[in-house]
Specification:
The chain has eleven helices and eight strands. By secondary structure, the chain is an alpha/beta fold.
Length: about 240
């Protein structure tokens, strides 16, 4: 279990910002993630101009961390769009690139997130060095145990609920998957998969430190990404 005094003292920053890896090292390698882990998926927002508008809207709403995910673009396209995001957003926004450790460095992102079929965490760490964030996706207890023994800074677990944001999703683990993962690691947990404004608080209550949201930030026909983000953040700060 997390140290209760430490957890209580850090509640006020969890929704608003991330700490750099240097700051984390000063705190004994305890990473602090914001409650909302925003994912900008090029599969849902393919146009670069639209990506920039969305990123700026959710950043203006208070998001402190954004992962850029592009599963189908060429390396040139991914790098171009990633660099545009870095240039458009304030330096205090932590940017994580999905899959590509090499492009993470080239785009001057803050870290990289890898899945089970990507480079191993050890190989990624060799590429990105000690000062960049490293996250790993997991989908079952065995993978959580393995990720816990790596140099990953945080572990994502999911899908928690059925999701349409991934072409071939892994089996749903449910809220029980978060409870089990929390028993297996002290690393920060990011819950992902089918998370909405209606179910996000149950995910946090189950032990997730952060909640990854993809399509839920698009705003829908009657809203905007900024409004959707603000709604999520209000839910977390009132939890």
């Amino acid at each position: 279990m997390w140290d209760e005094k430490l957890t209580e003292s850090l509640k006020h920053v969890r929704a608003g910002r991330t700490f750099t890896r240097g700051e984390m090292n000063e705190r004994g390698r305890i990473m602090i993630l914001p409650r909302l882990y925003a994912i900008l998926d090029a599969g849902l927002v393919p146009d670069k101009a639209a990506q920039l508008r969305m990123a700026q809207e959710i950043a203006d709403a208070g998001v402190a961390l954004i992962q850029y995910r592009n599963k189908t673009g060429s390396p040139r396209e991914i790098l171009d769009q990633a660099r545009a995001l870095r240039q458009a957003l304030p330096e205090n926004i932590t940017l994580i690139l999905n899959d590509r450790a090499d492009l993470c460095l080239a785009a001057e992102f803050n870290g990289v997130h890898v899945g089970q079929d990507d480079l191993s965490p050890a190989a990624v760490r060799e590429i990105i060095g000690p000062d960049h964030w490293l996250g790993v996706s997991t989908h079952n207890p065995e993978q959580v145990r393995e990720a816990n023994d790596t140099d990953a800074d945080y572990i994502a677990i999911g899908p928690i609920f059925p999701t349409r944001s991934k072409a071939n999703p892994d089996p749903v683990v449910g809220v029980g998957g978060i409870l089990r993962a929390r028993e297996l690691t002290r690393k920060p947990l990011v819950a992902i998969g089918g998370i909405t404004r209606e179910n996000c608080r149950s995910v946090v209550e189950a032990g997730a430190d952060s909640v990854a949201v993809i399509s839920g930030l698009l705003g829908g026909p009657n809203g905007s990404p900024r409004a959707a983000t603000e709604h999520f953040l209000r839910l977390f700060t009132s939890a």
